[in-house]
Design brief:
InterPro entries: NDK-like_dom (IPR034907), NDK-like_dom_sf (IPR036850), Nucleoside_diP_kinase (IPR001564). The modification Phosphoserine is found at residue 122. Its cofactor is Mg(2+). Homotetramer. The chain is an alpha+beta fold. Helix content is 38%, strand content 16%. The chain has seven helices and four strands, in the order E-H-H-E-H-H-E-H-H-E-H. It is globular. The relative contact order is 0.24. The protein binds ribavirin triphosphate and magnesium ion. The site of ribavirin triphosphate has 10 residues, from strand 4.
Amino acid sequence: MEKTFLMVKPDGVQRGLVGEIVSRFEKKGFKLIGSKLMTISSELASEHYAEHEGKPFFNSLVTFITSGPVFAMVWEGENVIATARQMMGKTNPQDALPGTIRGDYGLTVGKNVIHGSDSTESAEREISLFFNTEELIEYKKDGDSWIY
Ligand code: RTP
Ligand code: MG
């Protein structure tokens, strides 16, 4: 089953949005298989956002993502990578539709509440960057037979 890496960014944690965000993915039918509250080092931040190195917003992005605890998660389910991105909304909350996480809770592109992997390759890369295999729990969820 497909897996993705999602992370409530420091602004989302400080604003008390962790529960709300977890709840949206749970209600959708996805399965939480790993999660932790953690502080990101600048090394991990630079590695995670390596694709943006050299861009004008790179330094402020690294400063922001290391500025307070984040809530890192791995979610599993059919088409979870693309569906989670849809549920998050566009990168800039001003373009994100109401009903999406960024559309409902964000105002500026620098503090857009949540991160989500954008492809199979980035999901695999980001999951292994943030989680050990022992931290990911494979389990059967009774409700799954009412979803699939
Ligand atoms: P993320 O990686 O955080 O899930 O966001 P994303 O895929 O929707 O957007 P991406 O292009 O990967 O950009 C990563 C983060 O960099 C910040 N950003 N700032 N000032 C700007 O023009 C600008 N562009 C991007 C955003 O916080 C974005 O989430
Ligand atoms: Mg991205």
